[in-house]
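Is this the right way to post structure tokens for a design question? Let me know if I should format differently. Anyway, here goes:
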């Protein structure tokens, strides 16, 4: 048996065999892999596969004939080696709950589990270390989780209102890449745009909050249901582990009339978080402003309209980025 790492996209024949193996195992390709590991037998027949998407290992599959022969361990080892070669030593894995023993034996530890999905990490105390790095506050504590790509006057309105309803407000800046602005740029926008709001505390999410890349659902064939599974594991992680550790009893969200995915996520939070003693407070969108609109205006070069929708601190960062890219 041999295992080789291939950068995406794969050759047509490799892609065909890879997709066939995923389908055979009841999995699907989410299309975001950076690299794919393919295991073949002495005849060159594909017996196992797996993928690496940033910091997430996914789409691990083995043919029925090759089960129990160490193929899965070899594929996972190759993907971990590839991640380490890229300087990525912190890895997540999301899988079916009944796979817990198999991946525990391969060095992954449970972060959270739902009826449909299991989130694991290759650090025993990753979440605990993150939570212990955050301060604890007394009184009523609330939370806002935001991507802020970029940070707009709408975000400012939401955070300012949320802070007025709490003794202390945690604002978690989503750490996931893949946006117009980098995680450090978005974090700076939020920090500078909220520094005058009393008892408002801004932190990185450290990939534990609203991270679609960390929480894949390639093992759910129905894509619509897969979105629900992703939402549920994210919400359960916040409700069962993050909120209790930080004494958070309120979660504030902005009304979402434009994105069906975000709207469905908000509705799911309303269903699930009260079970953990957390109140969901939905705030009407501020003057129709959205980060999506601002991004469109930026692509059009309409800086005048952009300036009307964002705080001056955000505008300064946008200008700085524009000058750096010029």
């Amino acid at each position: 048996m041999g295992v080789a790492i291939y950068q995406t996209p794969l050759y047509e024949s490799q892609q065909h065999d890879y997709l066939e193996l995923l389908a055979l195992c009841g999995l699907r390709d989410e299309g975001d892999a950076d690299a794919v590991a393919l295991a073949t037998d002495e005849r060159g027949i594909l017996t196992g596969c797996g993928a690496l998407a940033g910091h997430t290992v996914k789409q691990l599959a083995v043919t029925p004939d090759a089960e129990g022969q160490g193929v899965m361990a070899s594929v996972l080892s190759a993907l971990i080696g590839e991640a380490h070669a890229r300087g990525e030593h912190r890895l997540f894995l999301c899988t079916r709950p009944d796979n817990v023993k198999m991946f525990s034996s391969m060095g992954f530890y449970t972060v959270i589990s739902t009826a449909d999905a299991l989130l694991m990490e290759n650090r025993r105390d990753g979440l605990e270390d993150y939570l212990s790095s955050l301060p604890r506050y007394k009184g009523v504590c609330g939370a806002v989780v935001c991507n802020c790509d970029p940070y707009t006057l709408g975000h400012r309105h939401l955070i300012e209102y949320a802070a007025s309803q709490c003794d202390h407000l945690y604002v978690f800046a989503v750490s996931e890449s893949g946006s117009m602005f980098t995680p450090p740029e978005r974090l700076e926008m939020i920090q500078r745009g909220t520094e005058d709001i009393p008892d408002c505390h801004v932190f990185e999410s450290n990939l534990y909050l609203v991270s679609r890349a960390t929480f894949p659902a390639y093992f759910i064939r129905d894509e619509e249901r897969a979105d629900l599974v992703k939402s549920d594991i994210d919400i359960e992680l916040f409700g069962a582990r993050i909120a209790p550790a930080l004494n958070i009893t309120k979660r504030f969200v902005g009304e979402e009339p434009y994105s069906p995915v975000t709207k469905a996520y908000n509705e799911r939070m309303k269903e699930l978080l009260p079970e953990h003693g957390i109140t969901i407070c939905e705030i009407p969108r501020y003057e129709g402003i959205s980060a999506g609109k601002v991004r469109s205006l930026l692509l059009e070069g309409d800086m005048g309209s952009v300036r009307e929708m964002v705080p001056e601190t955000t505008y300064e960062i946008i200008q700085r980025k524009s000058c750096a890219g010029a």
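Format looks fine. Someone answered above. Worth noting: The radius of gyration is 21 Å. The CA atoms of residues 150 and 318 lie 9 Å apart.
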